[in-house]
Amino acid sequence: MNQQQIILDSVNKVIKASSEQKAEQKAEQKVEKTITPCTLEISTKKLNYTKVLETIESFKAEQGWIATQSQNISFITKEDAQACTKTLKTGGVGTGKLLSAELTKKRNDKQGKATQSMTIRHHYAEEWQVTTFIESEQGEDYLCDTIKHYATSDLRKLSYQRLWQETDQGYEPCASYFTGFIVEEGQEE
């Protein structure tokens, strides 16, 4: 190996180490930016099927998904949400009973727009568990980060806020709620 090659190899090692260090710093900065404090009101109740359908209708979702005995339905507009709710309520062709759902909407508040989210799960027999998450100045404090999952029916991503709560062993995830679909560039809404 000649002297120039040795110098070139040394310079490349320094550049590589510097690049790796910058990438690690960016990753650390990204983690710091994605975990933020949040305050939420969370409530859970158990309802019969008729009350669940009324609750879904009065929520007036903007986006979400509903799983029934026969199919999964997702919607990304208020109009589609209303049509889906009506189909579910009237027992439309082939829908079957509700098994689970995640719905979301934005509401205007003092600080801009805040998310309201509703999660519904069939509990047993004729009972469904309905949990609502409302971003608010009142309520419990958590740390939040955003997680994304691909939907199975199309290439849209589902976005969730994951909540972290302090325990004796540090912060641990304790819940998550649906915040909407993310439409990637080039996809139709």
Q: What structural class is derived from the secondary structure elements?
A: alpha+beta
Using the alpha-carbon principal axes, give the shape: elongated
Helix content: 25-40%
| Strand numbers in spatial order across the main sheet | 3-2-4-5-6-1-7-8-9
Q: Topology as H/E string?
A: HEHEEHEEEEEE
Percent in strands: over 45%
Q: Would you identify the regions where 5 or more consecutive residues have pLDDT less than 50?
A: none
What's the total number of strands?
A: 9
Give the averaged pLDDT, no decimals. 81
CA(first)-CA(last) distance: 59 Å
Q: How many discrete domains?
A: 1
**What's the Cα radius of gyration?**
23 Å
Described by strand count, sense and barrel closure, the largest sheet is:
9 strands, antiparallel
Counted by DSSP, the helix tally is 3
